[in-house]
Amino acid sequence: MLKSPIQTPALSGATLFISDLHLCASRPAINDAFMAFLQNTASKAAALYILGDLFEYWAGDDDVEDAFHQQIIGGFKTLSDSGVQVFLMHGNRDFLIAEGFCRMTGATLIADPTTIVLYGKKALLSHGDALCIDDAAYQQFRTQVRDEKWQAEFLSQPLELRRKQIEAIRARSEQEKTQKSLEIMDVNAEAVNTLLRTHQPDLLIHGHTHRPNRHTIKLDGRLITRWVLGDWYEQGSYLACDEHGCKDMAL
User: Fold this and answer.
1) How far apart are CA 60 and CA 242, in angstroms?
2) CA separation for the pair 128, 176 (Å, rounded)
3) What are the residue boundaries of the structural domains of the chain, listed by start?
4) Which of 73, 87, 176, 234 to pair with 5, CA 20 to 30 A apart?
5) pTM above 0.85, yes or no
């Protein structure tokens, strides 16, 4: 894991932020859109930050032999080899991505949360799921699967068995979502404020909730911008930041 704060790369081009792509072999249109984004947009950037849920699920760094994963890995490797810095944060679907994936792609894993200096401003980056504290059942699940012992035991199982277990977890999660209110699955305002007070950023950038927006928070006499990144289920989007500020962009 990289230690924060990270300095903004001293290169030309913007710094880009994406999250919640949920890439999988069964959604070829979005996969193609992502590859085009890497080639046509991210290749002109100084750095690309993926703030969690790059994949619909990740069963382990040994699950890379199929054509779909090879395509995504190759796209990242081409991007990083060109000089664009690529940073990756775990989400709630791909928390098993590890150093093996990073060696193959040239990406760097960063902690959640991570602070960076973004064109002179202090930016706090997070996936966002840790802020959804009203969903107690999910927080219990998050604690379990982030435990190193649980992960080691899970990864010791055969790959095919891991895939089946993840599919079952996904199916159960989707069913449970239908019984939860939108408010429960959103960030908790006090959890956001606690995080902001702890890190004192100028802006917070996160995903997870699939509710893209720009929020202005007045906290302890300071104005803080909270950017929520969009998902890639229907259309890709990204946040582009440079010395002039940040803009939410659609593909």
Assistant:
1) 34
2) 19
3) 6-250
4) 73
5) yes
pLDDT in tens, 184-194: 889 999 999 99
Q: What is the pLDDT of residues 37-86, one digit of tens each?
A: 999 999 999 999 999 999 999 999 999 999 999 999 999 999 999 999 99
Beta bridge partners of 126: 206
Residue in 92, 77, 66 with CA at minimum distance from that of residue 159 = 66
**DSSP classification of residue 44:** G
**Residues 194/130, Cβ–Cβ less than 8 Å:** no
Mean pLDDT rounded to a whole number for the chain: 93
Tokens 């949920």, residue located:
22
What is the DSSP code string of 125-144? EE-SGGG-TT-HHHHHHHHH
Identify the weakest region by mean pLDDT among 125-129, 167-171, 240-244: 167-171
Strands (E), the chain: 6-7, 15-18, 47-51, 85-89, 108-110, 114-118, 121-126, 203-206, 213-219, 222-228, 237-242, 245-250
DSSP type of residue 187:
P
- The DSSP annotation for 195-236 comes to HHHHH--SEEEE-SS---EEEEEEETTEEEEEEE---SSSS-
For residue 1, pLDDT over 60 is answered with no
Nearest CA-CA partner of 140 in 96, 168, 173:
173
Structure-token match 């911008």, residue found: 225
Q: What CATH code is assigned to 6-250?
A: 3.60.21.10
